[in-house]
Amino acid sequence: MSDPLSEVIALLQPRTVFSKRISGAGRWGVRYLDFGQPSFCVVLEGSCRLAVDGHPAITLEAGDFVLLPATPGFTMSGFEPVRPERIDPKVMLSPAGEVRHGTRGGKPDVRLLGGYFVFDSPDASLLVSLLPGLIHVRGLQRLSTMVQLVTEESGKQRPGRDLVLTRLVEVLLIEALRSTSGHDAPPGLLRGLADIRIAPAMQQMHGHIARPWTMAQLAKKAALSRSAFFDRFTRTVGLPPMEYLLAWRMSVAKDLLRRGGHGLGEVAERVGYSSASTFSTAFSRYVGQPPSHYAREAA
After folding, report:
1. Which of 64, 202, 261, 280 is the most buried (most CB within 10 A)?
2. How far is the C-alpha of 237 from the C-alpha of 217, rounded, in Å?
């Protein structure tokens, strides 16, 4: 059976860039500007307040894990009123030691381990739009362990470091996402996979991408009428079924073209097009340039 979540994570091509320890004491607060790249943190001890733009403020406690797939602006602080210090993560320097906010010295009120990574996929914005904007997981030791491993590996220059980091971050993302209740998630991949009717259709789309699917065939996999399937899929995933299928096909096609070694006819066949010319027309319309040009630029 196809696993859409694993396939989306693999196509995002995550890699770790930076991690650090952060602590706060007394009256403190920092306001991070919109970053756009994925970021994460785990609370090692104590507690603090996190307010992410577009989401209700939450209290973070020891053992909590937070993932922001696209990192909008957010404020992190203690619990006393304070004017937060503004920080632009795009120009922030990378300190060698722990970053302390508020009162210097002494035992902190909270200590966190955080960092960010990037998605190398040019389709990152599309794929990230299928994920929740804020993922908050409480009390899952596996995630804390994964963050510790990522941080330890990123701080050393050992043989195989890049490959190890890629795999660790992929596992970290999957653990975080599958620990989130899909039924409570916003429209997107997790909510679709949690829907007993929509999940079988999504698994078929991913598992048999080259099949010439029709709305009627997909509705049958979901045991729904065509109209009921269209409405439920669109409401649950955030895209109409055939639009989702097209987006997925084009994401896979882009990945094949970037990797090279595949003729245009082979790429067309693998993503469900009967000929190279039909695929080229569809790709050009969707991407804005012919697949041959896209492949050359990617190379």
Report:
1. 202
2. 18
Domains 4-182 and 195-298 share a fold: no
Domain locations along the chain: 4-182, 195-298
CATH 2.60.120.280 correct for 4-182? yes
Q: Domain 195-298, what fold?
A: Arc Repressor Mutant, subunit A (1.10.10)
Q: One-letter amino acid identity for 122?
A: P
The pTM of the full predicted model, rounded to 2 decimals, is: 0.83
Helix (H, G, I), strand (E, B) or coil at 154: helix
Is there a contact between 237 and 248 (Cβ–Cβ < 8 Å)?
no
Cβ neighbours for 290, distance < 8 A, ≥ 6 positions apart? 280, 283, 284
Phi first, then psi, for residue 150 (nearest 5°) are -60, -45
Looking at every residue in the chain, the average pLDDT score rounds to 90
Distances (CA, A) of 101 to 41, 48, 94: 16, 12, 15
123 Cβ contact partners less than 8 Å away, ≥ 6 residues apart: 11, 250, 251, 254
pLDDT of residue 54: 93
Amino acid at 185: A
State the pLDDT at residue 1.
52
Q: What is the dihedral of CA 110, 138, 180, 117, to 10 degrees?
A: 30
pLDDT in tens, 205-243: 999 999 999 999 999 999 999 999 999 999 999 999 999
